[in-house]
Amino acid sequence: MMDAPPADQVKQEAILTAALAVMCQYGYRRTSMGDIAQAAGMSRPALYQHFQGKEDIARRMVEVYFDTAARAVSQALAGTGSVEDLLARGLAAKTGPMVRDMLDSPHGAELLDVKDSHAREVVAAGTARLTGVFADWLAREAAAGRVRLDGTAEEVAVLILGALDGIKRPPYAQFVEARERLAHVLGRGLATGS
């Protein structure tokens, strides 16, 4: 039997969920700590017991995003299927529900910019971690003779993730179409055909 997460962790997850919903509704700049507290069902003083401010919440949201994405991508790339299918699953896993909510928001572009202004170091570490996950997969696929790499596995992983970030813009449905095209083009280009 698994232990239940600590009450503090459960409360912080509820705060982050509420914060994302409010930020998607009002945008990052217009969202106040009072808005977040109200959405989380607590007082502002109680909210400040968990987070120092809106920037602290934004940083933690980015950390949670990268932790979740790294696990989801690892799992997706560990499956079976063609290179194109696995790449499509890996890219979809990187851009899960949080990205969907942000891109479907009228404030999507603003929310995507928050990570660069309030969580640069978290983004750098998270991106490095995801690059490693994709690079490990590419190295395994190359060793199995399923892909050919023009450069190191890490260099190709950087290109894949850079291309994915380059097409990330609202609305989510258009992003998904572009992401699927990207996976198709890159997957076919990487596959050896064997």
Automatic annotation (TrEMBL):
Q: Which InterPro entries match?
A: Homeodomain-like_sf (IPR009057), HTH-type_TetR-like_transc_reg (IPR050109), HTH_TetR (IPR001647), Tet_transcr_reg_TetR-rel_C_sf (IPR036271)
Q: Which residues mediate DNA binding here?
A: 32-51
Q: Which residues form the HTH tetR-type domain?
A: 9-69
Q: Which UniProt keywords apply?
A: DNA-binding, Transcription, Transcription regulation
Top-level lineage group: Bacteria
Bilayer-crossing residues are: none
Q: Name one GO molecular function term.
A: transcription cis-regulatory region binding
Instruction: Give a yes or no for keyword Nucleus in this entry.
Output: no
Give the protein name, as stated in the record: Transcriptional regulator, TetR family
* Organism the protein comes from: Mameliella alba
Organism lineage: Bacteria, Pseudomonadati, Pseudomonadota, Alphaproteobacteria, Rhodobacterales
